[in-house]
Write a structure and sequence with these properties.
CATH architecture of the largest domain in chain A: 3-Layer(aba) Sandwich
Number of domains of chain B: 1
Shape of chain A: elongated
CATH superfamily of chain B: MetI-like
Radius of gyration of chain B: 21 Å
Distance between the termini of chain B: 33 Å
Helix content of chain A: 25-40%
CATH class of the largest domain in chain A: Alpha Beta
Helix content of chain B: over 70%
CATH topology of chain B: MetI-like fold
Number of helices of chain A: 8
Oligomer: heterodimer
CATH architecture of chain B: Orthogonal Bundle
Largest sheet of chain A: 6 strands, mixed
CATH topology of the largest domain in chain A: Rossmann fold
Strand order of the largest sheet of chain A: 6-7-8-3-9-10
Number of strands of chain B: 0
Structural class of chain B: mainly alpha
Number of strands of chain A: 17
Structural class of chain A: alpha+beta
CATH class of chain B: Mainly Alpha
Largest interface: A-B, 29 and 17 residues
Order of helices and strands of chain A: EEEHEEEHHHEHEHEEHHEEEEEEE
Number of domains of chain A: 2
């Protein structure tokens, strides 16, 4: 169990978060500049919070230096040691072990991540995907209690990405450890996390099971970030503020709306609609005809504010 | 662009022509070069120069590399001032350096090896500090961060990660320090006329016997310096081949 309560002020930016993570893959999702990386670095011990505590498995590690935390950290640029071979990279954290044992662990973890045949290579001789795997192997070799990953899949091809994510999910549940990763990519967050926290401007606005957060955003900012339309409920004869996805708009019957714009994308028509001067977006399989349509909502979420 | 190349070429010509000319002129008179090699004063002074410059470089490394690391990695009030301090020796005329050192350390450094090394260190240490700092600055800090999360103490990170990665930059700074040290004359003339270093001996010979006597020693010193300089440069370049 990892518990973080931290406040950190950096210039105009204020990070103020409280988070509890169990043995799961937790994803922090949010736009750039939300403070996700800062939070990771606080957990890793690289940045000290102005106030707050970091507690790992019941031990307060707030003042413990990074080398004694047993927290693995993979930064966005991976930070492989360029002057060391893959083998040396992976064995860097295994200093306490004797040579034979070190070899065995390196081999085991390298095989696990599919880089067993790259041990003699140097980082710059590897593809980005291979570098990624080596970085993960290096971090896992020391058997960390938590593995932190900053935008781990941002530079990997989509097809390899899905495969690597599945593999890592399996590795995580076998090791029964905590993964905490950070992304601004909605697809990735949806694919990866057991739970997700949506972070914006230094605060975590919503935490929950991944499906729950994606299905039921609780506030305006989260809903918009997740790609929802946010409008007054009145527009559809409902109360309060509501959020609905562009795919939740059903064409055919219901409330009359003006078609403001219609663009074709790869799979859908992206339609901008307007009711009582309020604009929202809808996705449609076919191009709506005329200047007006009647629309209704298949699903919507009520927002707090 | 062509005009730029021409301007650059003029400067390069100005820098290299005297070197070539001196060698060529000397080769016309190999006998004087031979007698210079056999001159015990010459041998002694060159040995003095090589030893003191090397000692200076080692001292500059021991104290300058840590300072370079601090300047690269730590933020503290007055950092800009410290950085300026490091560069101060470069702007002070070298005879003034000699007088300042003499005032500060007086007899302790008068006419001895310590004096030569002090004078050399004062004018040449900034090269090591600055290039070490630049070398450390060029290392992505995340590499050091990751090394620490893998269980390495600050010390171990420095010796196994930062230092090897900055080595090329530090080596080129050390070469510059060595080269600057061995060519120092102004401060040494004031602090330690004896034991004689090669540049001081060349000046002596020039003053006492004229160009003809000074030139073979100059050529000898230049050949040794250039040879070592080129060799060291090649060595540090090939090390970074990875």
């Amino acid at each position: 169990m990892l518990e973080v309560r931290a406040v950190k002020v950096l210039g105009n930016f204020r990070l103020d978060v409280s988070l509890k993570i169990g043995k799961e893959w937790f994803v922090l999702l949010g736009p750039n500049g939300a403070g996700k990386t800062t939070l990771l670095k606080i957990v890793a011990g690289i940045i000290r919070p102005d106030s707050g505590r970091v507690v790992l498995e019941g031990t307060d590690i707030t003042n413990v230096p990074p080398e004694k935390r047993k927290v693995g950290y993979i930064p966005q640029n991976l930070a492989l040691f360029p002057h060391m071979s893959v083998e040396e990279n992976i064995s860097f954290g295994l200093r306490g072990l004797d040579k034979k044992e070190r070899r065995r662990v390196v081999k085991e973890v390298a095989e696990l991540l599919g880089v067993g045949d790259l041990l003699d290579k140097y980082p710059k001789e590897l593809s980005i995907g291979q570098q990624q795997r080596v970085a993960i192997a290096r971090a896992l070799a020391v058997n960390p209690k938590v593995l932190l990953m900053d935008e781990p899949f941002s530079s990997i091809d989509p097809e390899f990405k899905a495969k690597l994510i599945e593999q890592l999910k399996e590795i995580r549940s076998n090791l029964d450890t905590t993964f905490l990763s950070v992304t601004h990519d909605l697809e990735e967050a949806a694919m990866v996390g057991d739970r997700v926290g949506v972070m914006m401007e230094g605060s975590i606005l919503q935490i929950g099971r991944t499906e729950e957060v994606f299905e039921k955003p609780k506030c305006d900012e989260v809903a918009r970030f997740l790609g929802y339309n946010v409008t007054k409920g009145e527009v559809f004869g409902l109360e309060g503020k509501i959020a609905f996805r562009p795919t939740d708009v059903e064409f055919g019957s219901g409330v009359g709306a003006k078609i403001v714009d219609c663009r074709r994308t790869r799979h859908f028509y992206h339609v901008t609609l307007e009711i009582d001067g309020i604009r929202f977006y809808a996705l449609s399989n076919e191009r709506p005809k005329g200047e007006h349509v009647e629309v209704s909502l298949r699903r919507f979420a009520r927002l707090w504010s | 662009m062509r005009a730029f190349a021409v301007l650059g070429f003029v400067l390069l010509f100005f820098l290299t022509f005297p070197i070539v000319l001196t060698f060529v002129e000397q080769l016309k008179d190999p006998a004087s070069l031979l007698s210079a090699i056999k001159d015990p004063l010459v041998i002694e002074s060159i040995t003095n120069s090589l030893l003191t410059a090397t000692a200076t470089t080692l001292i500059a490394l021991v104290f300058g590399v840590p300072l370079g690391y601090v300047l690269a990695r730590m933020d503290f009030p007055g950092k800009g001032f410290v950085q300026a301090l490091v560069d101060v020796p470069i702007v002070i005329p070298h005879t003034v350096v000699g007088i300042m050192l003499l005032l500060t350390f007086s007899k302790a450094i008068l006419d001895n090896y310590l004096g030569i090394i002090s004078a050399m260190l004062f004018v040449s240490a900034p090269f090591t500090v600055n290039s070490a700092r630049d070398g450390f600055l060029a290392i992505d800090e995340e590499i050091e961060n990751v090394a620490r999360t893998l269980g390495a103490s600050r010390h171990r990170v420095f010796f196994t990660v930062s230092l090897p990665l900055a080595l090329k930059s530090i080596a080129s700074g050390a070469i510059m320090t060595w080269a600057r040290a061995i060519s120092e004359v102004g401060a040494i003339l004031i602090v330690a006329y004896y034991p004689k270093t090669a540049p001081v001996l060349i000046l002596d010979y020039f003053n006492d016997f004229g160009l003809k006597r000074a030139m073979p020693v100059a050529v000898l010193l230049m050949a040794i310096c250039l040879g070592l300089f080129v060799a060291l440069r090649c060595l540090t370049c090939s090390k970074s081949g990875r």
